[in-house]
Amino acid sequence: MDISENDPSEIAEISSDISVKKDRELMQHWLAQQLDTNTVAQFVPGPGISKLTLKFDISKLQQALAICLERQNYQGNMQAQGFSALALTRKPGQTEMSENDLSGRYWLRNTQTYEEEAREEFVDEAAFSEFNPEFEDTYFANVHHELTKRFRIGRMRVLSKPIYNCNSWHRDPEPRIHIPITSNPGSLFIVNHHVTHLPADGSVYFTDTRGYHTALNGGEAGRVHIVAALPDGLTV
Q1: Digit-coded pLDDT (tens) for 179-215
Q2: CA distance 131 to 156
Q3: Which residues are CB-neighbours of 81 under 8 A, at least 6 positions away?
């Protein structure tokens, strides 16, 4: 008898049996796999995340961070908040930073409709061309010098993520350079669907934050990066 002539309940039962068999086969295959638990603590390049040849002295980066935070009386705030920013560059002669200067335009998707929405105002990255003279005697000045030898640099900030904290899932107008100063194995960076760890070893990373991305710190220690914008990659 043709299956089409069967009782609907029989057809449903046959379909369920096929589904059960297929899922059991899939689960058997998945359970037999041995996942890599080592490279998750390393940098793995992928679309939107790459490593430059440039490299800095990590101990000098950490010393400079301590000096800058002490001068700004910022030590307690850097790890206590979900978003903390310390400006290393400014517009020529600028003495006060607005909240928008430290954050700026980004886009995210509406919770209900998934439609893209803009947040905050655009920042003219190229206008932030002057390194903060208060930190001119620190190793961060050398970092800025080496970066500007290679690319045009806009806002250069020290950004932190406290433990068990995550940024919004968003995109920016321009790509960024990341230089980890302190990190941990649970600190991850995600661009679109690629996720990796950025070790704090002096390496310099290109992150194409024109794509949707987030930074998260799922570890037991703070995460602090230098983040420098690349105005020449501006898009909307």
Answers
A1: 999 999 999 999 999 999 999 999 999 999 999 999 9
A2: 8
A3: 160, 162
Tens of pLDDT, residues 143-173: 999 999 999 999 999 999 999 999 999 999 9
> Is 8 in the same domain as 111?
no
88: left (phi over 0), alpha (psi -120 to 50) or beta: alpha
Same domain, 44 and 16: no
String of DSSP letters for 14-65: HHHHHHHHHHHHHHHHHHT-----SGGGS---BTTEEEEEEE--HHHHHHHH
Q: Which CATH number do you get for residue 119?
A: 2.60.120.330
User: Side chain identity at 25, as an amino acid letter?
Assistant: E
Domain of 70?
A: 39-233
Asked if residue 71 and residue 21 are part of one domain, the reply reads no
Q: How far apart are CA 200 and CA 160, in angstroms?
A: 13
The answer on 114 and 57 residing in a single domain is yes
Tokens of 160: 């932190």
Same domain, 128 and 200: yes
